[in-house]
What does this fold into?
Amino acid sequence: MLPLISCLTVTGWRLVLLKQSIQCFLDQTYPNKELVIVTDAAPAYKEAIHKYVTQLNRPEIRLIFLDGKFNLGTLRNQAIDAAKGDFIMQWDDDDLYHPERISLQVECLLREKAHACLLSDQLSFFGARREMFWVDWVPHYVNSPMHQVFPGSILAVKDAKFRYPESGQYSTQGEDSVFLGQYIDSGKVARLSGKGYIYVYRYHGTNTFPEQHHQWIADLHACDPEFVHQRMKPLVKALTYYPLPQPYTFFAKKKNQLFVYKQ
It folds into this structure.
């Protein structure tokens, strides 16, 4: 039997984006999964989430509503504690995921007999500018395994000794990099490469990190045109799935315009 994968979402006042993230979960081809949604937001947001999830009538979606205010690291740990699966997967409320994401990462993790699996490349989308880049973390960090993967894409064995930081500067941003570091230090971490079209990392204006951070990633790690052209068929097929504003321009390294996408 396939292992239960617990997808973990922390959310706050992003109902439209959250609904899209939930739909991505529901569209996953991997059958044995659950979605745990954690929030410490105001009652009105909790009520809106509860109403929407109730209408879906999907028992594999569970809600954890917390009283009080907590930092991001603490909220992520609450999600881990609520997870029923032997494996956990970060499932942010503002990103988009291809229907094959869980299946491909689980397959990679089991094949490599690893403790965790992450993507070494992903798509980066800037909503207001309608620009997309294919980002590859490997070339710039040849000698640094921790930096060759996208921390937010983690699928990992659930292990009580691995926790997100609940205090200090990394408790509010960059917490996923600290969490990933524990797995890298303790066991094998598998890289899923060349499948970046299964994850869209979005900048929408209310992200944890500012636009400059997202642009820095795109500027530093955008793929060469050849990389994209070699994967054009699965890329374009994947783009048809994502509910992104169109048309948008797809760029390669050094802001090389490749094509304008519109269905």
Remarks:
- The first helix runs from residue 15 to 26.
